[in-house]
């Protein structure tokens, strides 16, 4: 697809597929065109060229049929806080026109909101509002669920809970889930494949499994004595590959297998290891492809 505004082409030759039963990550620096792409997918703006098909229906020529296959949440879901969760779902079900009370109950159970669904939304945590928003998006039994920055504002426990829930939706419900996010570590744990957008173009589509298999970790050790640790690492990896970045911290590039064996060597040499931090491989790939542009 392509989008031109005035004389400026902001999206060019963007093409990808999202498959049933997978979580597909959509990444890009600030201003790369992620939001514009999502707006075209859901029909809010029309592409200048190209086609968008959802469930076999062209968004431009078969808009109603295509949108019946889509559930979408952009950041925090729009909910009526003075109403209960159930009343919110009833309201949106009425807008769809063919959603039964049985279907409402199904999605409530799916997002595990049974205990609080009759409480007012203003009493919900952000994580609960996100789950209710997903329930709302699932009412019409979509084939594609679009989530734009779904973990924004959540605490670590809420992020983990939402990640596991999204994985379950894809694996057990067979949904195609499209996730736009700036949290690269979360995307690596959540997604099956990712597309990286830069300058309005897709520069990479790859599986997370491939990133992990082919990636080289940048590992940071917090150790004492640092001189002994540096000698052990330099002997194994080469002196040029080991850097001291603080009084007790060393960093080097190596594979996951090497990390485990080197930890054994360090301990065998009498080194105390206080922490080992492995930098995110998707982040390394993203920075390499985009030249270090900020993601947002």
UniProtKB/TrEMBL annotation:
SMART domains named among the record's database cross-references: AAA
The UniProt record lists the keyword Oxidoreductase: no
Residue stretches making up the ABC transporter domain: 1-224
Keyword ATP-binding part of the UniProt annotation: yes
Keywords carried by this UniProt record: ATP-binding, Nucleotide-binding, Transport
GO molecular function, one term: ATP hydrolysis activity
Family as reported in the entry's similarity comment: Belongs to the ABC transporter superfamily.
Name of this protein: ABC transporter ATP-binding protein
């Amino acid at each position: 697809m392509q989008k031109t505004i005035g004389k400026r082409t902001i999206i060019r030759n963007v093409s990808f597929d999202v498959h049933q039963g997978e979580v597909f990550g959509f990444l890009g620096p600030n201003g790369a065109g992620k939001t514009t792409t999502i707006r075209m997918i859901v029909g809010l703006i029309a592409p200048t060229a190209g086609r968008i098909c959802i469930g076999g229906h062209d968004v431009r020529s078969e808009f109603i049929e295509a949108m019946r296959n889509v559930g979408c949440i952009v950041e925090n879901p729009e909910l009526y806080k003075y109403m209960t969760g159930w009343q919110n779902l009833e309201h949106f079900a009425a807008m769809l026109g063919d959603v039964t009370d049985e279907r409402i109950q199904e999605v409530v159970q799916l997002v595990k909101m049974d205990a609080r669904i009759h409480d007012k939304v203003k009493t919900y945590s952000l994580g609960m509002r996100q789950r209710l928003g997903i329930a709302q998006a699932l009412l019409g039994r979509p084939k594609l669920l679009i989530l734009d920055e779904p973990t924004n504002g959540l605490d670590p426990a809420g992020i983990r809970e939402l990640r596991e829930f999204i994985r379950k939706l894809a694996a057990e419900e067979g949904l195609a889930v499209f996730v736009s996010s700036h949290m690269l570590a979360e995307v690596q744990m959540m997604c099956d494949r990712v597309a990286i957008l830069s300058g309005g173009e897709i520069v990479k589509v790859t599986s997370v499994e491939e990133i992990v298999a082919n990636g080289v970790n940048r590992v940071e050790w917090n150790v004492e004595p640092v001189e002994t640790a540096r000698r052990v690492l330099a002997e194994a990896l080469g002196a040029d590959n080991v850097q001291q970045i603080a009084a007790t911290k060393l960093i080097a590039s190596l594979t996951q297998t090497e990390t485990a064996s080197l930890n054994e060597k360090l301990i065998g040499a009498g080194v105390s290891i206080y922490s080992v931090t492995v930098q995110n491989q998707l982040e390394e790939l993203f920075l390499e492809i985009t030249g270090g542009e900020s993601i947002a």
